[in-house]
Amino acid sequence: ASRTVLISGCSSGIGLELAVQLAHDPRQRYQVVATMRDLGKKESLEAAAREALGQTLTVAQLDVCSDESVARCLSCIPGGEVDVLVNNAGMGMVGPLEGISIAAMQNVFDTNFFGAVRLVKAVLPSMKRRRQGHIVVVSSVMGLQGVMFNDVYAASKFALEGFFESLAIQLLQFNIFISLVEPGPVATEFEGKLLAQVSTAEFPGTDAGTLHYFQDFYLPASRELFRSVGQSPQDVAQAIVKIISMARPPLRRQTNSRYSPLTLLKAVDPSGHLYVRTTHSLLFRWPRLLNLGLRCLGCL
Ligand code: NAD
To answer: Does residue 289 lie in a domain region?
Structure first.
């Protein structure tokens, strides 16, 4: 029998690619419920799904920030039984925190953190009853280490990491697996949406020095990072497909080996000194070295 896979945030990017790849599984192992907040945006997904549409893939409305929307979506799935839940919906936030309202920060947590928690609460009772299930969470390398001017986004991904690592221990008792997937930069609408956001934002109340560091140091370095080591959403989706097919899926999986020199800086020095000092120096003292280093990594 095929496994029912529910994915959030499928109108674009990683979610769209993952839904399409799973629906086209040559062995037809999956029934994909590809969900999105706004069904008006379903055209690209339906075009990419082709003949799988209505067969191994159905499109459904789901806003991860709404209890009613989650309940309505699950009520359309036979028995409400989800075998694999992929928490993919998410949003970014960059900029100096002095210029960002608490309400805007809470919106990021509502989507990235509580959105995933809401879905898990909804599917968990049935998974526990059936003693089976797999919960995949699209986290980020920023769930493992902070990045300048991404304070709130990184915090929302750290929250996911702590929540799901804690849950993973209990759920082993129920034969339910958790997998946190940690991509580096991915070339999706994500970066474009962020850049559009910052091009119109004024970050009121932020001092000139901080704005200078954001605009003249962080933004160019970030663009360079996407250009040099950015991964395609297809690549990330492929990594997730592999994890979903495993009998014993891992708790954590980084998808981009070209980014791992940066994550290693934290892993090898638990004091945190090496990661913070090195990235600080690369950004502020030797920005050219950062670009060069990343380009070299991009060529490997
Ligand atoms: P994307 O912007 O193309 O996709 C995000 C999707 O989430 C969109 O379809 C958006 O409509 C949806 N979404 C936002 N709020 C929602 C809500 N309330 N309810 C339902 N859907 C909602 O970008 P992406 O890169 O494909 O992002 C997917 C995931 O990957 C996110 O969790 C993101 O944090 C993570 N990620 C992205 C990158 C990157 O560089 N692009 C890197 C690491 C992790």
So the answer is: no
- Any idea what the CATH number is for the domain that residue 29 is in? 3.40.50.720
Note the pLDDT tens digit of each residue in 90-130.
999 999 999 999 999 999 999 999 999 999 999 999 999 99
Domain that holds residue 134: 3-211+229-258
CA of 207 to the centre of ligand 1 (A): 30
Distance, CA of 130 to CA of 171 (rounded, Å): 12
Question: What pLDDT was estimated at residue 7?
Answer: 98
* Alpha-carbon distance values, 261 to 34, 152, 265, 293, 294 (Å): 34, 23, 7, 10, 10
Nearest CA residue ID for atom 33, ligand 1? 90
Ligand 1 atom nearest residue 153's Cα: 34
113 lines ligand 1 (CB under 6 A): no
Average pLDDT over residues 52-72: 98
How many angstroms is it from 138 CA to the middle of ligand 1? 9
pLDDT above 90 for 171: yes
